[in-house]
Amino acid sequence: MKKDTSAKQQAKNLAGKAGEFLIGNDLRVARLGFGAMRVTGKGIWGEPADRAEAIRLVRRAVELGINFIDTADSYGPGVSEEIIAEALHPYPAGLVIATKGGFDRPGPDRWVENGRPGHLISACEGSLRRLRLDRIDLYQLHRIDPKVPAEDQLGTLKNLQAQGKIKHIGLSEVSVRQIQHAQTMVSVVSVQNRYSVTDRGSEDVLRYCEKEKMGFIPWFPLAAGRVSGEDSPLRHVAARLKATPSQVALAWLLARSPVMLPIPGTSSVKHLEENVAAADLQIDESQMAELGRLAPARG
User: Fold this and answer.
1) Of 143, 245, 124, which Cα lies nearest the Cα of 194?
2) Tens digit of pLDDT for each residue in 102-129?
3) CA 88 – CA 54 distance, rounded (Å)
4) Whole-model pTM?
5) Which of 167, 216, 246, 250 is the most exposed place for a label (fewest CB within 10 A)?
6) Interacting residues of 59 by C-beta distance below 8 A, sequence separation 6+
7) Domain ranges in the chain?
8) How far apart are CA 54 and CA 30, in angstroms?
9) How far is it, in rounded angstroms, from Cα 21 to Cα 23?
10) 3-class secondary structure per residue, 233-259
11) How confident is the model at residue 23 (pLDDT cuts 50, 70, 90)?
12) Which CATH class is domain 2-292?
C-alpha cells in the first residue's frame, strides 16, 4: 500500500519537474501543460471516437501534475470544453483552464476568423457554460480578425474582464507590433504562437515575452517529428539520452526560455505519459547548441 502511495505521489509531481511560471503574477502553473485540442473527433470536429477514453486522458493529465490545460470553444466546436468539465468538475484547487475565442467552424478542418464583438461575447459565455465556471482564468483571442478593428475585439475582452467573466487576457498568433498595440488597451499576460525546435519563426515574439515577463505558449510544439529520421540531430540526442525524439523536443523548449509553457496535445494516454516524462529530461549546453542548428531563428 505504501509503495502504491509513493508511486502516485511521484506521478503527481512529474509535470512540476519542468519548473513553474506565474501567469499574470498570480496563476502559478507547472511549465508543462496539456493542450486539449485532440480530445475531439477527426478534423477537430465532433465527438471523439471514444469519449470515455478522452475523459480518462484528461484525468490522467491532472494525475501527472499538470495544472494548466489549454482549450478553445472552436475545438469540437464545444466538445473539448465539455469533456474537460465532465472529467474534472468540480475542479481541483490550483487548476488553470485557459480557453480561446475568435473562430467560426463551418466544418471539419475549417477555421474562419470571427472577431466581431457579438461573436466574442457569445463565445465567452458559451465557454463559461460548458466549462461550468463563473470566471475564466485566461481567455485568449484566438486570432486578431483583420476584418474587424482590433480596438473592437480587445475592447470586448476588456469589458468581459470588467464584468468579472475573465481574469486575464492572452493573444494567439500575433506579431510583436500587434502585442504592443494590444498593450495600449489591455494587459496581456500570455502569447500563444506556433513554435518548436524546427520552427522558430516567432523568435522575436519569444524575446519580447521574456522582456515583458509574459507566458509564451508554443502550439504545435512537436513539429520536430518531421526531422526525426536516422540522420537527425534530434534522434541522435534522443538516443544518447535514452529518450524519444518528442521528449527531447519538449525538453529543448523547456530549456530554451523560462517563460516557455509547452502544451503538447494527444489523444493517447501512453503518449501523454511519454510527453510529461520530458519534464525530468536534462539537456546540456552542447546538446542545446546541436539542436539549435535544426532551424534558423528568424525575427
Assistant:
1) 143
2) 999 999 999 999 999 999 999 999 999 9
3) 12
4) 0.93
5) 167
6) 87, 88
7) 2-292
8) 22
9) 6
10) HHHHHHHHHCCCHHHHHHHHHHHHCCC
11) very high
12) alpha beta
